[in-house]
Amino acid sequence: MRFRRLCAAVLLAALLPVPAPASAAATTCEDVYTPVQFGLIRQTMYGRLCVPQGAKTVQVLVPGGTYTSGYWDIPVEGETRSVTRAMNRAGIATMAVDRIGSGKSTKPLSILVDVPNQAEAVHQVIQKLRPRFAKVLVGGHSIGSAIAMAEAGRYRDVDGVLVTGMTHQWDYIRAVPALTNLIPALIDPKLSLRGLDVGYLTTAPGTRYDMFHAPGPNVPTVIDLDEATKDVVSAGEFVTTALMSNLVLPVSALIDVPVMTVQTSADYFCGTPPLGADCSSAQALVASEKPFYPKAPRVDGFVVNGYGHVFNFDTKAATGYHSAVIRWQRGL
Predict the structure, then answer these.
(1) Is 302:321 a contact under the CB 8 Å cutoff?
(2) Contacts of 169 (CB under 8 A, 6+ apart)
(3) How many whole angstroms separate alpha carbon 14 and alpha carbon 127?
(4) In what order do the strands lie in the sheet with 233-234?
(5) For the whole model, what pTM was predicted?
(6) Which end of the chain has fewer CB atoms within 10 angstroms, the N or the C?
(7) Which residues are paired to 135 by β-bridges?
């Protein structure tokens, strides 16, 4: 009798549906198109909003030049390269946006597309999210970091700032030659069909590995995806990034909330000061960057090694980098 009951119990357990992991089942994602004032005109900023059940914090993530919101959720080899999914599994909501002029956002004349106007647009996205979340963080990569810093410094409406792929000391000896890989999007075989004006730029075909990934591994599936999904950046974004984060009074001097800086030692923004920040360790990076955030109550750092500028593509970096950002966010 006991044996029959045991067999029946085992059979019943086998027939019952197995629930999906809570982190996978509880996150809902949606496409959001936010009407924004962009300087003197109205535009629409696209974002992908993913919210784990019960999330009280949201990260608004801004990609760098020639990238879209997809930079934060790279679909190669599962989820190992996805910042948004790592944050969602940790219970943190994410809103990855396309900068105005790129991706699914609207595309005004390039002369209007600069860091201050992008920051204004991101600010309005944050205002729409604020009533729903107790904490709002803004983060970026490269030019997206300049936009995040400008938004936080000017509007002071966030609880923390994540800065990746951007420091205040640049190695111009390496950075300037890399910029020679940029061409007008209107002559690019892939992007010319968009009909963008000459002020929108992209990378010349076949240059993305050397410009963005080296010295990381040259993985064909990764580089092919990067080339296939490349987008644009405006000349104005480059100029205002330099002016607002490096050459004139850095806008970061106005930031009065905690900052997390994540950099890769192989990047154009790392080196021997003043030609790059000191990225020899997390402690050295913080010491090098902290003077540019005089009002920030704390500055934390994390250093990735062995990959180039777009280190979201690096599976080796992902575990430590993602965990460091999650720990920093939970400590706010």
Answers:
(1) yes
(2) 246, 269, 271, 273, 274, 275, 276, 277, 288
(3) 48
(4) 182-184, 200-203, 233-234
(5) 0.91
(6) N
(7) 57
Task: Please provide the DSSP assignment of 198-256 as one string.
Answer: TTEEEEPTT-HIIIIITTS---HHHHHHHHHT---EEHHHHHHHHIIIIISS-GGGG--
- The SS3 of residue 297 is coil
Distance, CA of 278 to CA of 305 (rounded, Å): 13
Tens of each residue's pLDDT in the chain, 332 residues: 433 443 333 333 333 333 333 344 499 999 999 999 998 899 999 999 999 999 999 999 999 999 999 999 999 877 789 999 999 999 999 999 999 999 999 999 999 999 999 999 999 999 999 999 999 999 999 999 999 999 999 999 999 999 999 999 999 888 888 889 999 999 999 999 999 999 999 999 999 999 999 999 999 999 999 999 999 999 999 999 988 887 556 899 999 999 999 999 999 999 999 999 999 999 999 999 999 999 999 999 999 999 999 999 999 888 899 999 999 999 99
First to last CA, the chain: 58
Give the bridge partners for 27, in sequence order.
Answer: 52
For tokens 């983060």, what's the residue? Answer: 139
> DSSP assignment of 47-78, as one string?
EEEEEETT--EEEEEE--TT--GGGGB--SST
What is the distance between the alpha carbons of residues 215 and 266, in angstroms, rounded to a whole number?
A: 7
